[in-house]
Every structure is written in structure tokens, then in C-alpha cells.
Amino acid sequence: MRKLFCFLPLLAALSAPALADEVFLVGGAKFTGRIEQQTDQMVTINIGDGVIGVPTSRVEKIVKGRSPLDEYEDRAKRTKADDLEAWRTLARGAAQHGLSAQSREAYGNVMRMAPDDAEARRALGYVKYDGQWMTEEDSYRARGFVKYEGEWMTPSEAQQAQARFDSEEARRDAELRAAEAEAEAAAAQARADEAEERAREAEDRNRWNNPVYWGGWGYGVNTWPTTSTIHYGW
Q1: By the 8 A CB rule, do 134 and 142 touch?
Q2: Strands 42-46 and 51-55
Q3: What pLDDT shows up at residue 125?
Q4: CB within 8 A of 99, min separation 6: which ones?
């Protein structure tokens, strides 16, 4: 009982509302974490799972405080490497404050000391299948599932999904070929129409250039008489 009691302050420290650096943006958005760097151009804040950079021009105000990340790091530095329950408490507190990376770190230490610890295993994404702890992916494989398009399913389901995909792909290909054929037919018709128009224009030009055709006056002689062919009566 005494051992359990001595760990309660650790959990309380992380579970109690802790002040943190708060970066208020123009427009109402807010980031909470620990400011790592602040310059005239950029404010960089560590939110636990990563670091976010915000242009200073978008920042309305900054409220400084001590963050859960600060608390976790301080506790982690003082926690002995072989103190299983202390690491378990830190892991729980970090998870409650959304510090998933830190929670995984702490649970990793728990699992290092107690490889069969159910709480740590589950928190780190392991599942128990056939009496053994394994990753979720390994458990699916052990049960005969296959991964298709990012989803786990039975081989039969995967085959059906592939058949549907192939059918849809064939339909799209047929539609594409039909559209291409239609476009080619339209282009061929356009070329034929253009050739017919050119032939008609050529015919019109030949008609106008023919000396036996005088525009709107109809047909007439196609040569003028020369002086050698004119007879004046003597």
C-alpha cells in the first residue's frame, strides 16, 4: 500500500491542470505546448507530438506557462530506469494530456522491464492472438487475412474486390476506346467535308476562269475574230 501511495503524486502532477505556453492566433485559433523558439519571423511551439511553426505576423498574443511536456520531462529525468510503476504512471499521465509520443516512450520502458505487461502492450498497439503478443498486422496475417488497397480482408474478399476492379477497369477502357473511335470518325468526317469544300471552290475557280463563261451573261464566243478573218465585202 505504501508503494502505491508514493506513486500517486506523480500521476496527480501530470493529471492536474498544468499551465502551458499558449499561442493565440489572429482569428481565434490557439496552440498549446511549449515554445521552443521565438523570433521576429516565427514562433516555434512543441505540442508534444511534434513541433509547429507559426509566422509571427499571425500571432495575436502569447501566454507563458509550464506545460505538461515540461512536467513529463522533469519527471522522466528523475525516474529510475528500473522503476516499472513510476514509468507506468508517467505513461498514463502523458496519455491523458495528449502526449502520445511521450506515453509510448514510457510504456516502452514498462514493456522493457515486463515484456508480457498487458497494459503496455495494448497501449503500444499489440494484440494477443493464440496466447502470443504480436503487432496488429502480424495478428491479421496469422488469421489468414491479406492486405488489399490498405485494408485487411480475407483472400476471398480480396479476390472479389480485384474482380470488381478489373471489371470496372475493362468498362472504362471500353468507354475510352468508344470515345476515341467516335472522335476519330468525327475527325474523318470533318476532313471529308473540308476536302469536298476545297473541290467545290476549285470547280468554281475553274468555271470563272473559262473564257466561254461570262459571268451573268451566259455563254458566248470563246475567241475574238482577227483582222485576217474579217471581210468587208471587196
Answers
A1: yes
A2: antiparallel
A3: 93
A4: 48, 49, 68, 69, 72
